[in-house]
Design brief:
HTH-type_TetR-like_transc_reg; 71% helix; 0% strand; 200 residues; mainly alpha
Length: 200
């Protein structure tokens, strides 16, 4: 009887090694040799499972996007629209320069400037987050909990763009602001765009 293939397990190991390498070295400094060394393999062995380094990094990006969006979708479930909005805002900001998942997404985002495949997935990440916010805003408007000052999609796009901008500042080697400050500024915009008031 033939032994079961270890290819899926090996591919998952290489994705994990590549994920750590991107966070530690940065995507622009990453070499195939770094992945091979981290996995205890030759470069040729890595290429057996992934034809190019770009193919491997695409899988890393896919896994990171899915993990990030799933976390946000779970945060947005349950409660009133107001509670869901607050939870979603809090789930989108990095904790700081050591936030592995957010740093990973920002690093891989640099490739999206030049590679259509990465760009498409980066756009999907953005649109998926916009969709989360849009659903919450529309639910709040339907129940009368929110009075939107603009189209729900426009507000959602602004919220995600603000998160992205603040997130870049939070993940720098020397952050230019604290997470609490970024969250407060997002909430300030949300209160203006949705007439969101703190509960009494």
């Amino acid at each position: 009887m033939a032994r079961p293939s270890r290819a899926p397990e090996r591919r998952a190991e290489l994705i994990a090694v590549a994920r750590r390498a991107v966070v530690e070295r940065g995507v622009l400094n990453l070499r195939l040799r770094d992945i091979a060394d981290g996995a205890g393999l030759s470069s040729g062995s890595v290429l057996y499972y992934f034809p190019t380094l770009a193919d491997l990094l695409q899988e890393v990006q896919h896994e990171a996007v899915e993990r990030f969006c799933t976390h946000r979708e779970q945060a947005a479930r349950g409660g009133t629209p107001r509670e869901r909005l607050l939870a979603t805002i809090r789930s989108g900001l990095p904790t700081g320069p050591d936030d592995e998942l957010c740093v990973l997404l920002y690093e891989l985002g640099t490739i999206a400037r030049r590679d259509p495949v990465y760009a498409a997935r980066h756009i999907a990440l953005y649109e998926r987050q916009v969709g989360i916010y849009t659903g919450i805003l529309e639910a709040g408007a339907a129940t009368g909990e929110f009075t939107l000052t603009a189209d729900a999609v426009a507000i959602a796009r602004n919220l995600v763009a603000l998160e992205d901008g603040y997130g870049l500042h939070l993940t720098q080697a020397v952050p230019t602001l604290q997470r609490e400050t970024a969250e407060a500024m997002l909430l300030s915009y949300a209160r203006t765009a949705c007439t969101l008031e703190e509960p009494s």
